[in-house]
Amino acid sequence: MQRVREIDVRVRHRIFGHKRSIIPSDGTLYSNAMTDDFLTPVTRTTLTADICRKLVSHLIRGDWTEGERIPAERELCQKLGVGRASLREALKALEIMGMIETRLGEGTFVCHRSEFFSRPLLWAITGSAKADAHELVEARKLMEVEMAGFAAERATAEDLQTIGKYLEEMEASLDNATRFLEADLNFHMAVAQAAHNRILLNALNLIRNLLRQWIAQSLKLEGVAPTALKQHKKIEAAIAKRNAAGARSAMQAHLEAMAALLQDGSGDTAERGQQDVPRMQPQA
């Protein structure tokens, strides 16, 4: 019996990961034909990729906070046990990803979390076909429409005050594209904040720069600012009245209207019915 157990252990050790074995009580060994399909070849990575993944994990966890200066290259090399060439390649990758920025003569600093991974997304959207821009439209509708409804249900008095403040700033900035852009963006982020869902808020923060690009492109078209202001007023009114369905409907209508303008390069849609509205001029 002891002999059978020893054979059992040795055989299992040899075939582990190749075939499953069944050892009956009589000590006879049988192997079935089922292979472990979930076992796949190990991916080989470079030292630079390993460094990059490690630094990304530290940045995501918040080991270095936003705006904080990370250690100098020499210190990082010593602590990580890597060469300067591999480290520099990893740092370049992180900068391209929007996670860190290098300031000449000052050092390397952690970007705002809303910048993380946003630069490649921004390049993809602004430099590609309309089909890709359509995906951004879909993403905004999926997130912001629902968040508007949540805001109507969950917004605090302070949340409502913040949303109203940015709405007032939009109205006061109809003749100033730069200030209107900031107020518009902040309005959407304030609505997202009022939804009180951190996961959705973080997701929207991730594409914050894309939202800025979207709004900036839209504001280049004649008559967009007054139209957007009216739509934002409807969103704010529905949220203030705790009308979740109305808030979702107003946000849906706003995003669809702005998406139509964004995807219409001529801007004719914006001009229809707005001939009496002067074009916004960017601040000098």
Verbal overview:
This protein has 284 residues and is mainly α. Helix content is 63%, strand content 4%. The strands form 2 sheets. Strands 1-2 form a two-stranded antiparallel ribbon. Strands 3-4 form a two-stranded antiparallel ribbon. The chain is elongated, with a radius of gyration of 28 Å. The protein starts with a helix and ends in a 13-residue tail after the last helix. The relative contact order is 0.09.
CATH architecture assignment of the largest domain: Up-down Bundle
Count of individual helical segments: 13
Question: What is the element string, with H for helices and E for strands?
Answer: HEEHHHEEHHHHHHHHH
Low-confidence stretches: 11-25, 27-34, 266-284
First-residue to last-residue Cα separation:
92 Å
**Average pLDDT reading:** 78
Tell me what portion of residues adopts beta-strand conformation.
under 5%
What is the helical fraction, as a range of percent? 55-70%
Strand order, biggest sheet? Answer: 1-2
> In angstroms, what is the radius of gyration?
28 Å
Instruction: Determine the CATH superfamily of the largest domain.
Output: GntR ligand-binding domain-like
CATH top-level class of the largest domain: Mainly Alpha
CATH topology of the largest domain: Four Helix Bundle (Hemerythrin (Met), subunit A)
Structural class by SSE content: mainly alpha
Which geometry do the CA atoms define? elongated
Taking the sheet with the most strands, its summary is: 2 strands, antiparallel
- Return the domain count: 3
Number of DSSP E strands:
4
